[in-house]
């Protein structure tokens, strides 16, 4: 099984999308619009009166029934937002930022990166979790690209 301990890691994925910065931002800043592009998300609802910006809270339900609560903690219009997961992951800390950069009129670069600190698990389990998260980001970003480039 290996020694159980806390592990820290990060995941970072970047994709170029043939769409304007506004179009990309309008899609990603609708923080409950996840079922349309994030892999295995069944539904997303607001837990806050606030729908945009710092203080917006969402509850994500995945196809397997797992629920994750996330709070937006930083927000800069048309540039980035940062959120933390407060429950639902095998982690003590999860902080993620989705940021966009205009490359040209119709080309936007999007980066999704996160910092994570695990619950007690073996190093092998943690590395597998990082690989899983990376694949999850990649597949979700490919979906986003496909939708936005239609």
Q: Tell me the helix content.
A: 10-25%
CATH topology: Alpha-D-Glucose-1,6-Bisphosphate, Chain A, domain 4
Q: What's the mean pLDDT score?
A: 97
Contiguous uncertain segments of 5+ residues: none
How large is the count of helical segments? 2
Count of separate structural domains? 1
CATH-defined superfamily: START domain
Describe the sheet with the most strands: 7 strands, antiparallel
- Which structural class fits the helix and strand makeup? alpha+beta
**C-alpha termini separation:** 47 Å
DSSP summary, beta strand count: 7
User: Strand-and-helix sequence, N→C?
Assistant: EHEEEEEEH
Anisotropy-based shape = globular
CATH class bucket: Alpha Beta
Q: Would you identify the CATH architecture?
A: 2-Layer Sandwich
Measured on Cα atoms, how large is the radius of gyration?
Answer: 16 Å
Strand order of the largest sheet: 1-7-6-5-4-3-2
Strand content: 35-45%
Question: What's the quick description here?
Answer:
23% of the residues lie in helices and 44% in strands.
Topology:
Layout (H helix, E strand, L loop, with lengths): L7 E10 L3 H8 L12 E6 L10 E6 L4 E10 L3 E8 L3 E14 L2 E12 L4 H26 L2
Antiparallel strand pairs: 1-7, 2-3, 3-4, 4-5, 5-6, 6-7
Report on this model:
This protein has 150 residues and is an alpha+beta fold. It has a single domain (8-148), classed as START domain (Alpha-D-Glucose-1,6-Bisphosphate, Chain A, domain 4), CATH 3.30.530. It has two helices and seven strands. It has helices at 21-28, 123-148; strands at residues 8-17, 41-46, 57-62, 67-76, 80-87, 91-104, 107-118. The chain has a seven-stranded antiparallel sheet with strand order 1-7-6-5-4-3-2, covered by helices on one side. The longest helix has 26 residues, at 123-148. It is globular and about 50 Å long. The chain starts with 7 loop residues before the first strand and ends with a helix.
């Amino acid at each position: 099984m290996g020694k159980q301990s806390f592990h820290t890691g990060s995941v970072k994925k970047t994709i170029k999308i043939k769409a304007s910065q506004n179009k990309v931002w309008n899609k990603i800043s609708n923080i409950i619009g996840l079922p349309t592009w994030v892999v295995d998300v069944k539904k997303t609802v607001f837990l806050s009166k606030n729908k945009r910006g710092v203080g917006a809270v969402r509850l994500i339900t995945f196809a397997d029934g797992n629920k994750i609560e996330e709070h937006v903690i930083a927000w800069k219009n048309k540039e980035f937002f940062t959120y933390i997961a407060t429950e639902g992951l095998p982690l003590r800390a999860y902080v993620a930022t989705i940021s966009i950069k205009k490359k040209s009129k119709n080309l936007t670069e999007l980066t999704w990166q996160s910092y994570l600190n695990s619950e007690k698990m073996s190093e092998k389990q943690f590395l597998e979790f990082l690989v899983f998260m990376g694949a999850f980001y990649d597949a979700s970003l490919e979906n986003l690209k496909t939708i936005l480039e239609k």
